[in-house]
Structure of Nucleoside triphosphate/diphosphate phosphatase:
Amino acid sequence: MDIPTEGSNIQIQSYKHNGSIHRIWAETKVLKATNHLVIGGNDRTPVTESDGRTWITREPAICYFHSDLWFNIIAMIRDNGIYYYCNLGSPYVYDKGALKYIDYDLDVKVFPDMTFSLLDEDEYEYNRKLMGYPDVIDHILKKNVDKLVRWIRQRKGPFSPEFIDIWYDRYLTYLN
C-alpha cells in the first residue's frame, strides 16, 4: 500500500458499502504516516456530501486511521474540551492522494468528560438490509464497537489527552 508523505495534504473519502461516495473532506494535513497508521489534522476544511451539499468544519480536528481497525476517530478541539466522533467503518486504504474507507453508519460520540453515546443504530439496520451487509461485517463491527468502548474507558490512543496535545502541536507547526 502507498503511504502518504508527512506534511502533505490529502483528501479523506468516505464511501458506502455499495461503492457510492458518502462524504469527502477536501484537505487534511498528514502528521504521521506508516504502513498501518495515518494521523492527520485539519481546520475549517470544506466537506462535500453525497448529494453535493458542502459545508466547512468549525474547529481544528485530529484524525486517527488504522489499517487494522474497523473504526476511525476524529478529535474535535473546542473551547470547552475535546469531543470525539468515531465512525465504524472499514480499515482505510490510501490511493491516488486520498485516504478511503467504507462508512458503516454506526457512530460513537464521546464528550469531554469521556461519557459516550452509540448513534445511528436505526440507520445501520436500514442500510444493512438495503445494501445487504454480510453477517461477517455485522459481527466485525459489533466486535469493534466493543473494542472502541474499551479504548474510551481506558483512555487509550487518541482518547489520551497527551495524544491530542502532541498531534495538535505538530499540526500547528505545519501552519507556521
